[in-house]
Design brief:
This protein has 241 residues and is mainly α. The chain is built from seven helices and four strands. The longest helix is centred in the C-terminal third of the chain and has 38 residues, at 202-239.
Amino acid sequence: MADPLHQFEVVTLIPIQIGGVNASLTNSGLVMVVAVMVISLFLILSMRGRALIPNRWQSMAELSYEFVANMIRDNVGNEGRRYFPFVFSLFMFVLFGNLLGLIPYSFTFTSHIIVTFAMAITVFLGVTVIGFLRHGPKFLMFFVPSGVPAAMLPLLVPIEIISYLSRPVSLSIRLFANMTAGHTMMKVFAGFVIALGFLGGWAPIAVNVALTGFEFLVAFLQAYVFTVLTCLYLNDSIHMH
């Protein structure tokens, strides 16, 4: 049976060395570039007509826009509108990265912890900087729970700090683990199809079809979860609650 983890191997496609730094184009980097191109083409072409009565593609683009805009409005408020471009870009990048990974012989870059952690640490550092820019040193009061007796603060403040610092870890692991587990299961059952042959392979085929539909749902769900948590962290930095 084929190794189900082989699909996550990063392979160098075009070796590039710049000043001793390995800047080679890998299969992961290629799919990221493809994801950005597909997102750009989808949004540009679907909105090119700007029809009063939208077609299917324009409706999908407008629904994506409204979905993220409502997410920001519900979780951050009107003050979060200025951060819409970043949140929308993040949502589309994660979503299309998940969906492109479902194409046979493609690569799921959201199944690599280094990629999801890079996005998570960007969100973490961004909302932290926003918190200090808006509130200055008062942002440190975010780690002091209100209404708590002073005697409990030496215990609760470190817990709040650890909880805050663990955000990028939990945010990145959630996306990475779900995508890796789903694709691994699909590859395992695909291996059963080959091992059991024509007569016995129908059951794992049926399971794989069901898993594929489930993975489409997970692709949207994980993009939503990653984005809504970003909105919640942004709300904490803006409103300190």
